Amino acid sequence: MTYRIATIPGDGIGVDVTAEAVAVVDAVLPGVEWTAFDWSCENYLRTGAMMPSDGPERLAGFDAILLGAVGFPGVPDHISLWGLLIPLRRAFGQYVNLRPVRLLPGTESALRDRTAADLDILIVRENSEGEYSEIGGRHNPGRPDEFVLQESVFTRVGCERIIRYAFDRARDRGRRLCSATKSNGLIHSMPYWDSIVDEVAADYPDVTVRSMHVDALAAEIVLHPDRLDVIVGSNLFGDILSDLAAAVTGGLGLAPSGNINPARDTPSMFEAVHGSAPDIAGQGIANPVAQILAAAMMLDHLGESAAAAAIDAAVCAVLEEGRVLTPDLGGTATTSELGKAIASRAAESMG
Ligand code: NAI
Ligand code: MG
Fold first, then answer.
1. Average pLDDT, stretch 122-129?
2. Of 3, 132, 165, 204, which is the active-site residue?
3. Are 165 and 96 contacting, i.e. CB atoms less than 8 angstroms apart?
4. Is residue 318 part of a domain?
5. Which of 132, 252, 336 to mutate to test the pocket of ligand 1 (most atoms within 8 A of CB)?
6. Does residue 244 sit in the same domain as residue 272?
7. Is 286 a pocket residue for ligand 1 (Cβ < 6 Å)?
8. Crossing angle of helices 156-172/189-201, nearest 10°?
9. What mean pLDDT, rounded, does the chain reach?
10. Nearest-CA neighbor of 123 among 218, 233, 235, 217?
């Protein structure tokens, strides 16, 4: 089977790590047809738009999209995110944001006495509504009574489908689900979310479910990661928890993510959790592992589970050996040296 995959390398280190991820995929699954789109902040400065207005139509026919990261100093973040990332997630019905968080072998966690067996969490983030809404506005601008309103949107369909998806993932894994709430502070949206968790739970008697306030859950990720398996959260809660969870493993350079449309009638989009890292852009030292693991999630989604597993095993082997590591992992290797080490290890295991 030949796949047609679109890449949007984007800005900063997104460009470098995407090149490595493409090379790793080529090493395990020859013949993928790649098409690169140069949509980015640079493109915005040149054309006034992050992507052309028919961007989603141009991508619709691809089997999947591999996105680097968008955002760069000089272009406000709300322009880069709302001009590309968020519209694509919504145009393609990618209502699941799937974020596996694992302590990989050979990497040093902020939780130093923990091992890979203690920390293996899957974060299922709602990816289409919730707190990230365009409803609201600035009123009485410049006056003493100036105020802003930022509304949240929680729909029955939106809540139910993501919660059901999370229960299904829990069923594939350790049958434990934790729902992030904040019903003591957000007195309309979160009790509603909780009630839908209860409703859906009735269909999954084999899955143990509990609700935790998001602040307590943040502490739980640090103090007792071993008690957690699948976490489901709204758009904002899932976003914050996944950066936290990535940080307590070996850092942002290791954390992958998938924007998934479970209906599969449009392409899903895979990306690292991290952004474009302007502070290290252009130095050739970004860790490509997060983007390489995002590419492995993409292959898994496409049904290429052997190729995905080969990439995963190659990442673990190279990290465990500890000879070729980027500076964020305490080494001196470049982005492409680490990428090449993983690609050749993965190719060996396929060959
Ligand atoms: P960031 O994730 O780009 O960087 C945070 C810190 O982690 C920096 O110190 C960076 O050097 C380090 N880091 C991140 N990825 C790394 C890697 N692969 N290897 C080694 N170190 C790494 O987050 P920040 O600085 O808040 O955002 C920078 C830009 O990226 C902003 O414009 C933001 O809007 C954008 N962004 C885009 C995302 C996307 O396209 N999905 C996601 C997050 C941020
Ligand atoms: Mg984030």
1. 96
2. 132
3. yes
4. yes
5. 252
6. no
7. yes
8. 50
9. 95
10. 233
Q: Is residue 103 part of a domain?
A: no
pLDDT at residue 326 greater than cutoff 90: yes
181 lies in the same domain as 79? no
115 and 239 assigned to the same domain: yes
Query: Catalytic residue among 44, 95, 165, 182, which?
Result: 182
Q: Quick one: which of 8, 101, 123 has its CA closest to 293?
A: 101
Cα separation, 112 vs 25, whole angstroms: 32
Q: CB of 333 within 8 A of CB of 325?
A: yes
Domain that holds residue 153: 109-249
Determine the residue type at 189: S
pLDDT digits (tens, 9 = 90+) for 177-236: 999 999 989 999 999 999 999 999 999 999 999 999 999 999 999 999 999 999 999 999
Amino acid at 275: G
Please indicate, yes or no, whether residues 305 and 182 belong to a single structural domain of this protein: no
Boundary-marking domain end, from 219, 249, 279: 249
Based on the structure, what is the number of domains in the chain?
Answer: 2
- What is the model's pTM? 0.91
